[in-house]
Amino acid sequence: MKHKYYVLLIWKDIEPELFGPYSRARIRDKRAKALRTEHGYEHGIFSLDITARGMPKVGAYSGKFFMEQET
Questions:
Q1: What are the phi and psi torsion angles at 68 (to 5°)?
Q2: What is the distance between the alpha carbons of residues 25 and 7, in angstroms, rounded to a whole number?
Q3: Model pTM greater than 0.85?
Q4: Strand partners, 61
Q5: 48 pLDDT above the threshold of 90
Q6: Quick count: other Cβ atoms within 10 Å of Cβ 13?
Q7: Which runs of consecutive H residues, i.e. helices, occur in the chain?
Q8: What b/e readout covers 49-65, taking b as 16+ CB neighbours within 10 angstroms?
Q9: Residue 47 and residue 9: Cα distance in Å, rounded?
Q10: d(Cα 56, Cα 34) in Å, to the nearest integer?
Q11: What is the pLDDT of residue 63?
Q12: Which strands make up the sheet holding 15-22, listed edge to edge?
């Protein structure tokens, strides 16, 4: 199994929605920033990785992450 990358969006911190899978973390992170731009700060946005062994790992994005410009 390959490592898979997802964005976990929690609408109004209540209703979960999963976006992905993405082949790379950078692609996933770009989607997370796009979701923040599209939907604002009322919703929780998290990274969700599924390792090659099938284990989930949820991570939090910092506020600074969403303020950084794409290079």
A1: -70, 140
A2: 10
A3: yes
A4: none
A5: yes
A6: 9
A7: 25-39, 63-67
A8: bbeeeeeeeeeebeeee
A9: 9
A10: 23
A11: 82
A12: 15-22, 4-11, 44-50, 56-60
Tokens standing for residue 15: 């209703």
Mean pLDDT on 31-60: 95
Length of the chain measured in residues: 71
**Beta strands per DSSP E along 1-71:** 4-11, 15-22, 44-50, 56-60
Cα–Cα dist 25/23, whole Å: 7
CA distance 47 to 58: 6
Q: Which residue has the tokens 């390959």?
A: 2
